[in-house]
Amino acid sequence: MAEPAITESVAGIVQSFQSMNHHGKSEQQYQDIFRGSVSLLRKRLDNGVDRPLPACDPAPADRNATDIRNETPYRLGQSLLPGLRGELQSLSLALSSPSSQNDCSSWYDGILDTLMEIDDLVDRIDASIIAIRADHKPWNPHRGMYQHMPYLDPSRIRSLVCQVKELFETELLQVVTTCSTFFDDGFSLSNPSTYNLSITKGTNDCARMTAISTDKINALIQWLHTSMIKLVEQEWQKLVEHVDDSIESVLLDIRRHPLDPYYDEPDEETLQFIEIYEKPQKDIFRAAVPLLKLCRIYLNQLARRSISTQRLIFLDPSMHIDMDQLKKLFKSTHQAVSDISEFILAIDAGCEKEHFVEAAKMLLDNVVGVGGLSPLLQEYWDSLLESTDPGVNGEVLCQARQWLKSWTEQFILGILNFAVTTNDPHWR
C-alpha cells in the first residue's frame, strides 16, 4: 500500500533556515540543511506517483476536474518537465563551480534555491499525474463546442504514469543520491584542498547522473508531444469523414432533378418556379462544391491520412510545435469545420443567397484570415526558422510553405468563382 503523500517541503526547511541568524551561518549549518533537503527530496521521489492505476470505467468527474486534467499533459511537456531538466542542469553546474571564500553564503544559498525548485517541480509533476488519473473517461469531441483538446486515453495514461514513476524512482533518485554524498569528504570552501577532491569525484558523478536524467526527460517530453500530435490528428481524421459525408449530401442535392419519373409531369407554374429558383440555387451549389473539396484536402493534409502526405506539423524534436500553438490550431480547425457545417446546412435548408455569401465569408476568414488556420501554421513555421536549433530542417519547411501557397491560390480562386456566381455586391 502506498505511503501517505509527503506534506513537508524543501522550501519550508530552507526558508526557515534562511530566516534564522541573519549575522551569518557556518558552512556546517549549510551542509546540514543541504543534507536534510536532499533527504526529504529522496523520500518524495521514492513515494511519488505510487498510486493504483485508474479503473476502466470510473465515475464521471466534475467539469472543473476534467478541464484541469485536460490541460495537464500540455503543462507537463511544455513547462514542468523542461523546467525540471533545467534545474537539474543548474544544480550540476553549481556543484562543479564553488564560489570564492568571500562569497560562501551566496553559493550555498544558490544551491538550496535550486533544490527548492526541484522539489517544487517534483511535487507539481506528481500532482499533475493525479489530475490526469482523476478522470479518464473517453473523450467526447462535441463537449464544449470544440473548445477542448483531446484527452489522453487510458493506455497512454498508464504509459505516462509508468514513465514518470521510472524517472522519479530511478534516474532522478540517482542524481539526488549522488548529490547527497557531495559534502561527505570534509568539503570546505575555506580549504581548497578539501573541495578540489570533492569536485573531482562528486561533480563528475553528479554530471553523469544528470546527463542520464536529462536524456530520460527529453524522451518523455518527445513521447508526450508525439502522443498529443497523434491524438489531434485522429480527431482531424474524424472531421474529414464528417466533411466527406456532408459533401456527398450536397452532391446528391445537385443531382436531384424535379422531372424525376417518380414525379408527376410539372405544370407551367412549376416549370417557371424551377427556372427562377431551382436553377440559380443549383448554380450556387456547384460553385460551393470546389470550396468544400478544398477544405477537405486541407483537413486531410493536417490529419495525415496518407503517409505520403506532406507534413504540416512535424514530430522531430527540433521542430516541435508549441503546445499553445497546437491548441490554437485545434480550436481554429474545429471553427472552420463548424463554418463548413453552417455552409452546408444553408444549402440543405435552401436558404437565401445572402446566407450562403455570409457563410462563405466566415469560412474565408477562419481559414486564411487573421487568427485562421493558415496564419497559425505560418506563425509556427516562422518560429522554427527563428530557432537556432541546427536540427530544424529548412527543406521540409519550404515544401510545407509551397504546398500551403498552392492550396491558398486554389482556395482564393474558388472563393472568387463563388462570388461571381452569387453576383453579390458585398464581395466587391
Summarize the structure.
This protein is mainly α.
Low-confidence parts lasting 5 or more residues at pLDDT below 50?
53-69, 141-147, 258-263, 270-274
The backbone outline, from C-alpha atoms, is elongated
Q: Strand count, sense and closure of the main sheet?
A: none
* Whole-number total of structural domains: 2
Helical percent range? over 70%
Helical element count? Answer: 11
Q: What letter string, H or E per element, gives the SSE order?
A: HHHHHHHHHHH
Approximately how much beta-strand content do the residues carry? Answer: under 5%
Tally of DSSP β-strands: 0
Termini separation comes to 72 Å
Q: What value does the Rg take, in angstroms?
A: 30 Å
Mean pLDDT: 77
Instruction: Find the structural class using helix and strand composition.
Output: mainly alpha
Characterization of this structure:
This protein is 71% helix and 0% strand. The protein has 428 residues and is an all-alpha fold. The chain has two domains: 219 residues, no CATH class; 172 residues. Helix 1 runs antiparallel to helix 4, helix 6 runs antiparallel to helix 7 and helix 9 packs antiparallel against helix 11. The chain starts with 9 loop residues before the first helix and ends in a 6-residue tail after the last helix. About 8% of the residues have low confidence.
